[in-house]
Amino acid sequence: MIEFERFTLGNGLKVLLHKDVNTPMACVNTLFDVGARDEAETKTGFAHLFEHLMFGGSINIPEFDTPLQNAGGNNNAFTSNDMTNYYDTLPANNLEVALWLESDRMTSLAFTPKSLEVQRNVVIEEFKQRYLNQPYGDVWLELRPLAYKEHPYKWATIGKEISHVENATMDDVKAFFKKHYHPSNAILCIAGNFERSYIEDMTNKWYGDIPNQLKAPRILNVEPEQNEYRELTIVRAVPSKKFYYSFKMPARKTEGYYTCDLLSDIVGNGKSSRVYTRLKKEQKLVTDISAFVMGSLDEGLLIIAGTLEEHISFQALDEALWILLDEVKVEVVSDLELARVKNKLATAKAFEDLPLTQRALNLCTFELLGDANGINQEMLIYEKIEAIHLKLTAQKIFKKTNCSLLKVQPK
Amino acid sequence: MSVNRSLCPVITPIGILPLRTPLTFDIAENCYLYWMDKTQSETVHVAFHFDAGTTTCIGPEAVFASRLLLSGTNSKLQAQIQNEIDQLGGYVNCSVGEENFSIHVYTLRNNLLPILHLVHEAFDGAIFPEAEIQDLIREEVQSFLTNTEKVSYLASLQFRQKVYGNDIPYVKNVNEDFYKNIDRSDLIQFYRKQLKTGMKRIEVVGDLDTEIIDEIIDLWGAHAILERMPVATSFVHQPGFYHVEKVGALQSAIRIGRPVLDFHSPDSIEFDVLNTILGGYFGSRLMSNIREDKGYTYGINSSVVNYSKASGFQIGTEVKDEVIAETLSEIKKEINRLKNEMIDGEELELVKNYILGETQASIDGAGAMLSTYTGLLSRGKSLEYVNDSLDRVRAITPAKLQHLANQFLDWEDFVIVVAGATKVSGN
Questions:
Q1: I want to staple B376 with a disulfide (CB 3.0 to 4.6 A). Which of A273, A391, B116, B381 is the partner?
Q2: B68, B97, B167, B285, B312 from B191: Cα distances, Å
């Protein structure tokens, strides 16, 4: 059970307090309800570029990192298609330094031309280092537009193409900030050994006077139901053939999400999973293979990905994989197998929640989904799932017309 | 209520850090169990550490042993072992490095003992079936070939070969045959000598009864260490400029460094501070200059690699080809600044505070505290070293740092490796 308290400031900022009496550290996690899905198709990569700019100085503080490091703290951030998250960890008695820094950059950034110029270059190098100059690094750039035709999930957080980031102007950046970076679009979680009254005082002191602004409605292109099989082969300078089968699956908030997650575990999580035991160990078609869900807030993807053995054809794998998936659609998973994936999940979730930063992030994420207490209810949802649910879900998901396959062929 | 946003709130300096010693149990001579209890969690982590690593074999035996430890016994196949562990919700993985080899078990408390029995049965009776070895060879070769597509891998491989020279094989000459030529009997010999009678400690983090600890010792005690492996006390490096060609690469990877004074040297803490200033944190001189001012790279850092009795220092980054020469010259400039100018008080204060904060964070939680404790113990230090070293950090002077920079950061003494498509010269 992860305890927390919740209150909302006058300007709409949601605050969560997670009290942990056993740590001398504090974590300040700020989640902004903006991700790459909120970008215009002609200006992609902005949410992520913006994450970089958030470290380039704010309205009253020239440098973000210096005071935090002086307070013995550390910080980082990430951007996904759904959200942008910032966190600071520091000794608990210096909590106020983090609140000062975070509240100032929520008020306004410095928006210096130099910062924009430099971070554009840094992000372009990041694009190359992580996506273009790595073997198989661009598969997600190719897979997304194959699986999504309308929804903004069709581009990756780094952007659809480098030119969007290269052409970002100061006006673009300021407009993005104004629209997405304000109290009612944020969720703040403070974790550490603190009393509620102290946190109420401190958050009112530092965040209370940030002007209130209405949360902009989110109107995203709706992805039409997929009813065709899609396949794309890309040829790259890589040593082995890789494959990415992606199947549309329900959004994060729905119960169907959890069933799909368990289904992906049955099919391909770990060395006792079906694809591993059958396609790798028995049939020796692949050297590695696994299944997982992307965890997206809107309609997501269940992926089965792996690497072919040297002399095996894509077709041989395709036939064997569909035989395996067809079985899950007609046979009911045994109680033993279902218990196995649930037991593994229970262990994984318990370990996941050990670090303070992870608890603070997860509380914010569940609050974004509607209720921070979801963190304590998630396992109950998984436990209620029965074998018949998995079979019915498999019938809906594992259809050719719901599948997009990306193949990477060595040059 | 209006606040003055231009003023940083008062910062409280970090004082003496509270430390917690684990409970210690004797297993045999030179072999102990360390236990952190009262974790207020259902989770249990048990780690078995062996006096083994990639330096205790010629080929890839250590890596293969780590991947195949649960791959079958005379009575159970790999699939059956894995299935039984998974059924109990357990996670088992092995980690291997130059001087370390460990088995980690993660589980919820109620399944701990059955899982430990399963893992022990698989470990104790491991036969390393030939078919499993052949499967792994194909995996390792594929993964090696994928790695050779990465400029970062190519640069690091060459860099390690030029820096970590020793009679003990800290660096291996890796190619496809390195994996293909593994011999099952060598693997079994490695397992018998280094693992079956090579366990140097067990670490337990979990809310448990003492009887459980006794049972763990009964179960695993027979594997206590008999003979210590030799470790490097120094490295011989080959300074110079090396280019590794990678046709078609979009960026080049740079590695610069040399062996430096080790953990036991009187100035090792001070050198760590020097490294932090140069490239050991986000606000470091290299990051501030090469990323945050020039935008040449996504990241650049420097680090000290500590083996048990010898250490290395390295700078690493990946940059666009147009600015390789500029990057090298800026790195050189930053190093010369450390040698020629005293660090100013404000920057030094910041770095000290940053290190104190990082140290406090690094011992937060029962697991982190235990790793710190056993890490120090294996180097012959007690837990008091944590606070003693912080006192030394607080006391460091600009003159001392400048002296160390002059002692260890001569450009001519560095191994410099650039891997990428564009051939550049060393100057």
A1: B381
A2: 11, 15, 22, 45, 29
DSSP for A215-237, written as a single string: PPP---PPPPPP-S-EEEEEEES
CA distance B116 to B113: 5
Q: Do A133 and B251 touch (CB under 8 A)?
A: yes
A263 and A302 Cβ atoms separated by less than 8 Å: yes
pLDDT the model gives residue A200: 98
Mean pLDDT in residue range A40-50: 94
What residues of A are in contact with residue B364 (Cβ under 8 Å)?
Answer: 23-25, 356
Evaluate whether B130 touches B173 at the Cβ level (below 8 Å): no
Q: pTM score, two decimals?
A: 0.95
Q: How many angstroms separate the Cα of B377 from the Cα of each of B22, B198, B373, B374? A: 12, 18, 6, 5
Q: Name the helix (H) or strand (E) containing B104.
A: strand B101-108
**What's the confidence (pLDDT) of residue B427?**
53
- Per residue in A178-225, pLDDT (tens digit) is 999 999 999 999 999 999 999 999 999 999 999 999 998 999 999 999
Beta bridge partners of A76: A87
On chain B, the residues whose CB falls within 8 A of the CB of A239 are 142, 145-146, 148-149
Q: Which residue of A3, A9, A70 to mutate against B (max B Cβ within 10 Å)?
A: A70
**pLDDT value at position B262?**
84
pLDDT at B2: 75
Query: What ipTM was assigned to the predicted interfaces of this complex?
Result: 0.94
- Strands B415-420 vs B240-245: parallel, antiparallel or unpaired: parallel
- B255 beta partners: B316, B417
